[in-house]
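Researcher: Here's a chain I'd like modeled. Treat it as a single chain, no partners, no ligands.
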Amino acid sequence: MAFPILSFFTGGGFLDIGFKQAGFSICWTNENCPAFIAGFEHGMSAWLSSSNKKWQLTAKITNTSSICELSAKHVLNEAFAGPRPDIFGVIGGPPCPDFSNGGNHAGGNGTNGKLTTVFVDMLCNLKPSFFVIENVPGLYRFRKHRNFLESKLCQLQENGYALDFMILNALEFGVPQDRERLFVVGFKRSLAQNALGRRLALDERRWFPWPEIECFKGARSLPWPKVTPFGEEPRKPEEIPLELTVFPALIGEGDPEGIANGCEYFKPYSSKFREIREGDVARKSFKRLHRYRFSPTAWYGNQEVHLHPWKARRLSVREALRIQSVPDEYILPEELSLSAKFKMICNGVPCRMASHLAPAVHGFLERAAK
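Model: Modeled as a single isolated chain. C-alpha cells:
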C-alpha cells in the first residue's frame, strides 16, 4: 500500500528517496531555501526520469514558505484537496546545528532549535497517523538538550502518540560514513497497539521494530588501517568489508569524474593538499580520507575540508553524493554554486540509511492497518 507522506524540511530529498523506494507516496513537500529547492527539483527530476525512459518526470517542491508561516489547515488542503486519507504520515528533519557538537549548543532557544518546537506543534495540529523526526544525536546525548527533547516527547504523547526513538549509525547499514542520527517514530496509539496486538504503557520504549543490523553491526570497532604517506598506495586489508570504505565510491562503478557532477570541486591552492597523510582525520579541517576506511561525517562547511585520499584536491560533488549513498542518477544543476551543493548534500540523511528505516515503518503500518 502506498501510504501518503508529507515531507517537511525536504532539502535535497534524500530521506524522501528512501521512503519512496519503500513504497510510500510523497504527496507534499516543503522547503524554503532557494538553493535547496533548485537542487531538489533538478536532482529528483533526473532520478525519477531515470527509472522511466518513456516520460520526462518533473519534481517540484509543493510549498516554499517557511514552516513558521504555515497552518495545518493550509498544509492539509494543499496536500489532499479533499478529505484526508485514513492513514498518512509526516517525515522531516528540522535544522540541527543548535543541538550538535559542532554548533553553539543554543538548544531549543536557538534560531534553528526553535524550528523543532514549530515542527512538533505542526504535528500536533496536523494529527498524522504516523511520523518520523530526524535529528543529531546531541539532542539526546547532551543533558541540556535531552530535557528539551523530553518536553517535546511529552507533548506528542499527550496528543495521542506512542513514541520510540533510537540513535542509528549509517555505517552499520552499509554507508561508507560514520554518521549517527537520532530518529523518533510516532504512531497514533491505537495504530501502534493494533500492530503489536497488545496495550502500550504511556512511556514504553523499544517497541518499534527498528531495522535489523545484520552484516555490519559494530563496524567502527573493526581493525581499520591507520595513516599512509600521501602518494603511496596502502595495503588493502582483507579483514575489512570493502563496501564500508570510500574506495568503491571514489572509483567503483564508473569513475565519478566521468559522470555528472564528477569534476565539480573547489580548486586546490594550499600546500596542505600534498602534505597531509592519507587517513589523517584527527584535525578539525583538512581531513584526508583513507581509501580503505569509512569517511567521517560528511560536513563540508564551517571550514571543515575533506580531501581525496590519493588526489591533491577536495572531494567532488559526485564523490560527496556517493558517500551519502545518493544514486548516480540524481544530478545537481551546473549553475548551482558549489557551496550550496555541498551544504545541501551534507544536510541530508544518507539514502541507504533511509531505505532501511522506511521499510520498517511500512511493515509496521501494514500490520496496523489489518
